[in-house]
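Milestone M4 deliverable, item 7.
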Amino acid sequence: MTPSRRTFIRTLTAASALAVTEAVARPFGPVAPAYIPNLRRVSPNDKIRIATIGMGIQGNYDTQAALRNPDVELVAVADLYDGRLEHAKTAFGKDKNLFASRDFREVLARPDVDAVLVVTPDHWHDHITIEALKAGKHVYCEKPMVQHINEGKPVIDAWKKSGKTMQVGSQRISSSAFQEAKRMVQAGDIGTINYIESNSDRFNAIGAWNYSIPTDASPATLDWDRFLGDAPKHPFDAKRFFRWRNYKDYGTGVAGDLFIHLITGVHFVTNSMGPTRIYSSGNLAYWKDGRDVPDIMTSVMDYPKTAAHDAFQMVLRVNFANAGKISNVTRIIGNEGQIEFSEENLILTKRKLPIAPGYNGYDSFFTFTEPVKEEFKRQYDAKYPPETRVAEPVKEVRFDAPKGEDAHGAHFGDFFKNVRAGSQGTIEDPVFGFRAAAPVLASNESYFQQKVVHWNPETMTMKTGEAPASTVAKKKK
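Output delivered:
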């Protein structure tokens, strides 16, 4: 930061500060927030100055991954819990005076912030993202992009109008294994896709979101009312604040937290826009700790034939009570083989049937009369010469990600590259992000409403004739 910029930041007018303070006191009121527009363009040789909004677990990991890229500097953080602000100053501000605030709009008002990382509970994603884009900031928003389906298009509209770069944070697709899977599928290595299955199982308390709660958690040390935002009002509850993923008022359950990674990967590899029909089932089997979202869920999704692929079925599963062997992979199955992959590696298995179908064994051939058997064999031999009766040998190709690969850092690298280029064409832009988020949010809709949800992936709307359900519509306050 140049001295002139430091001076400018220190001398922000009292009127601007007052306007921001009044706006954040009424985050959803009729008065629009006041912004100090960020008119600074990032040149290829400049540092990109970032701010992280939400310094919880993922906020810290995202910040670390972002800073592993060259010429990126953290200048501000926001969080609703004082302890996390203090931790951020220690972890990221040892050699400088890191700006830290409970109020994310104070961060957006800073002209030295080029881009923000939105790493808050899901119910704040759309609000902060839209405000950040209006304030002229580039945005990296954690998955899922939105908490409710009706929030997706407003985010997309705000992004398009802003001209800013926006990336959604499902970083696995920036791994070399996912990119190799995409190359193989597009090359036709497994033939025509007909079925995909993907799972993300766990069996431990922290994996089931029972995160540690600080001993000083209280209404004095955190902003409970601001945390609630437009969610239903509720008395202070530290569990809800620090374990918000367990409650549908603030999170999106296993679908929004884990299905989103699975479906993002599949869409990336197959170039799919999404399913047309979604059905989910599951239950709360093990973690009966007051949460109101399931710990076991399976979703079946029907993908239509498109120019990119034939029709296929996809099954997604999460089981937080899997005490057996856990093998979390995605399997894409075609009529000439399959690809089984995770973030770390990939196995391609090619297997083609012989042209000749064969006969005998568990077959009706043995029930024929002898004359019919002879005639059948004569016709079979004429139709299928010997070379058509032998299948190609099964081929297996293994791909391992390079040692030390940093998919998380690479995902941010794509974001920063596009920020410098003035491009909106990231690997996971808001249109891609919403096409991945909507089906998993529909999975929740199906589970809680016990119905099949019909979706139009091209127009990104509920199909005609489907009445909007209570969990999809979200009343703004």
